[in-house]
TrEMBL record:
<dbReference type="InterPro" id="IPR027417">
    <property type="entry name" value="P-loop_NTPase"/>
</dbReference>
<comment type="similarity">
    <text>Belongs to the ABC transporter superfamily. Spermidine/putrescine importer (TC 3.A.1.11.1) family.</text>
</comment>
<dbReference type="GO" id="GO:0005524">
    <property type="term" value="F:ATP binding"/>
</dbReference>
<dbReference type="InterPro" id="IPR017871">
    <property type="entry name" value="ABC_transporter-like_CS"/>
</dbReference>
<keyword id="KW-0997">Cell inner membrane</keyword>
<keyword id="KW-0813">Transport</keyword>
<dbReference type="Pfam" id="PF08402">
    <property type="entry name" value="TOBE_2"/>
</dbReference>
<comment type="function">
    <text>Part of the ABC transporter complex PotABCD involved in spermidine/putrescine import. Responsible for energy coupling to the transport system.</text>
</comment>
<dbReference type="InterPro" id="IPR003593">
    <property type="entry name" value="AAA+_ATPase"/>
</dbReference>
<dbReference type="InterPro" id="IPR013611">
    <property type="entry name" value="Transp-assoc_OB_typ2"/>
</dbReference>
<dbReference type="InterPro" id="IPR050093">
    <property type="entry name" value="ABC_SmlMolc_Importer"/>
</dbReference>
<dbReference type="InterPro" id="IPR005893">
    <property type="entry name" value="PotA-like"/>
</dbReference>
<dbReference type="Pfam" id="PF00005">
    <property type="entry name" value="ABC_tran"/>
</dbReference>
<keyword id="KW-0472">Membrane</keyword>
<dbReference type="InterPro" id="IPR003439">
    <property type="entry name" value="ABC_transporter-like_ATP-bd"/>
</dbReference>
<comment type="subunit">
    <text>The complex is composed of two ATP-binding proteins (PotA), two transmembrane proteins (PotB and PotC) and a solute-binding protein (PotD).</text>
</comment>
<keyword id="KW-0067">ATP-binding</keyword>
Length: 370
């Protein structure tokens, strides 16, 4: 942030040991998290992991059984939903079908206390519609808009009340893939221009990575890892994150003398030097497919410091910029390699049944102990 005069506070929102149980389901299990002012943060997890429940507790639609939520120095426990400085935007946008675009955006403003003057409401609505570039549609009804336009109106409505915290629950789920990708960037741009702190809930890892500065990975009510998209992808801290965010090759084995002894790999696997798992313990190694080099089995073998094995091509998915190869080793184990199409400029790419070698540098693996 270049604006040194107003440095964003790093713990603008503090979630401290928040827990929520429904009957025998621990929906949210002791989640602690600090979010900076003006940050865009994504809660990422599959269906049922508790991300929506956490969001609803921030909005005041659900009360925690334990823990505290502090926003901008204020403990929210005693603040009812309608008085919270938060605004939640849902999947379905929930625009009122009988109201025009501008009436929809103005809707929440009429309930502000102290009351806003009519001119003030009109000015804020106009500013918001300009922000999302929907001025031209001010008199239309929601059914006369595209999905992307409805989404922008819903955002304008959420921002009109100038919330301290914007909560987005799968905001783009209703859009088709192509529009969704464009809208992700548009939305980030808008949120950054407004400068509102934002928490986004999604099960879509690409969406989380595209939109958020940091991601929190959730599973079974727990927050497993928090980090930038790069940190989460490159250095997952557990098997769940490694497999949930992107594709990976996981090798399970016993650690002995700095190597992983693994039943489904032909040789002890060299581990990165900085990983120091206990000898004799069980561990997993995660190797991203794009870290796995693929060559013809007859080519010069991989150099020192590499883990390598020979197998045959079992499957290929050609994706334009790259291809994903499934290579079956002699023992049946599949190793996935993602290979840039540019690699085959001077030679034909290997095809089904060809004998190939997969190899990766030891430092490119990530050791996981849980
Ligand atoms: P989705 O993406 O499908 O919305 P989620 O990650 O947002 O999933 P939550 O909606 O937070 O998950 O639900 C977490 C767990 O709590 C689930 O097992 C769910 O069945 C349960 N749960 C949520 N709300 C209630 C409720 N009102 N009553 C009972 N159980 C609930």
């Amino acid at each position: 942030d270049s604006d040194s005069g107003s440095r964003p506070r790093r713990d603008y929102l503090r979630i401290e040991g928040v827990t929520r149980r429904f009957d025998d389901t621990l929906a949210v299990d002791g989640v602690s998290l600090a979010i900076a002012e003006r940050e865009i943060f994504a809660l990422l997890g599959s269906s049922g992991c508790g991300k929506t429940t956490l969001l609803r507790m921030l909005a005041g639609l659900e009360a925690p059984d334990a823990g505290r939520i502090v926003l901008d120095g204020e403990d929210l426990a005693a603040v009812p939903a309608y008085r919270r400085p938060t605004n939640m935007m849902f999947q379905s946008y929930a625009l009122f079908p009988h109201l025009t675009v501008e009436q929809n955006v103005a809707f929440g403003l009429w309930q502000e206390r102290p009351r806003l003057a009519r001119a003030e409401v009109a000015a804020r609505v106009a500013a918001m519609l300009e922000l999302v570039q929907m001025q031209r549609y001010a008199r239309r009804k929601p059914h006369e808009l595209s999905g992307g336009q409805q989404q922008r109106v819903a955002l304008a409505r959420s921002l009109a009340k100038e919330p301290k915290l914007l909560l987005l629950d799968e905001p783009l789920a209703a859009l088709d893939k192509k529009i969704r990708q464009r809208t992700q960037l548009e939305l980030v741009n808008l949120i950054e221009r407004v400068g509102v702190t934002c928490i986004l809930v999604t099960h879509d890892q690409e969406e989380a990575m595209t939109m958020a500065g940091r991601i929190g990975v959730m599973n079974e009510g727990r927050l497993l890892q928090v980090g930038t998209p790069g940190e989460i992808y490159e250095t997952p801290n557990c098997r769940f994150t490694a497999e949930f965010v992107g594709e990976t090759n996981l090798f399970r084995g016993r650690v002995d003398g700095g190597a992983l002894h693994c039943e489904d790999f032909p040789a002890p696997i060299l581990l990165p030097a900085d990983a120091d798992p206990d000898d004799g313990g069980e561990a997993w190694l995660s190797v991203r497919p794009e870290r796995v080099a693929l060559s013809r089995a007859g080519a010069a073998p991989a150099g020192a410091g590499c883990n390598a094995a020979v197998g045959e091509v079992a499957e290929i998915a050609y994706l334009g910029s790259h291809s994903v190869y499934h290579v079956r080793l002699a023992n049946g184990r599949i190793v996935i390699a993602s290979v840039a199409s540019a690699q085959w400029r001077d030679a034909a790419p290997p095809t089904w049944g060809d004998a190939v070698r997969v190899a990766w540098f030891a430092p490119d693996g990530v050791v996981l102990t849980r």
